[in-house]
């Protein structure tokens, strides 16, 4: 392999601004380059009918997006319109598009790109002149093709492994959801004698199960937010103060912030709840998510705390709420982001067997969830290693750290 030379980006690429085209909208994605918005499985702001300032992108173009300082420059294999905030680059010299697709995603290039990014955090931008002045590693065109072919093959293989492991995680979660529903509705039992006490979306349960109203057996409460500018209200040595951001279907043993005895004395709504308390997010991005206190803790006003002992087990209720979150959100109110209230939780009628059976079901679900968590953690670690391997392979190939065969 001959040495890789370096040239200024402006000798290979120029910015193009072509407006006034009636074409489908496209966006720069983290992994896939430029994709049509209609094909993306995410919510993207739609400008309506006014796309007059949007820029045309063609196959073979490259696009600097809003996150390029982190994810590299996206390559396009389609014709569409991209945001006016994007910079469209078009080759003005013979280059292999596939080589630069990989090169612009390499660690060495992203590092150089980050050095010229202007601004902070999400607001960082890449100026066109700054890009023009970057020195690009450019081998001969035959070697560009060889490197691109090698990386196409290897990254396709790695991507298939990554997709398979992510699919395994999805299937594991789906199986647990089905298993949980069967246990929480008694459909795992052999008895055919059933009835439907509600809620309407739950379906039939064994005739021996009874509907337990939460308010009849358990108590609910919440908390508040002390003034953030009062330094005497917060301390690392204080009582954990839980927010909905910390409700992650796990046992909560700590929190990002702790409140002091002063805050507790001066806020009657700020109460300390015992371990075993079930927490439910009532609004915000995590609405409907749950957690269980593993320590004494206070909380903010967006958390509903369920305490007490009775014929309805808190551990059974925790799993019932966790595995029926989407159904619970159907009971939410509000024209924008859905909200649930303490009244929503208190009014729930939860069909359940006798207390010992409830506890046994909760234990089974906890044990299976722990096993799934271990498997998921292993698969996630393997996936992360594959992602790192992919990135390292691209960087090694475009910097000649590994050999690629050039066709004669």
TrEMBL record:
InterPro entries: Restrct_endonuc_typeI_TRD, Restrct_endonuc_typeI_TRD_sf, Type-I_RS_S_subunit. Residues 206-378 form the Type I restriction modification DNA specificity domain. The keyword Mitochondrion does not apply. GO terms for biological process: DNA restriction-modification system. One of its GO terms (molecular function) is DNA binding. Keywords: DNA-binding, Restriction system. Coiled coil: none annotated. Belongs to the type-I restriction system S methylase family. This is Unannotated protein. It comes from freshwater metagenome.
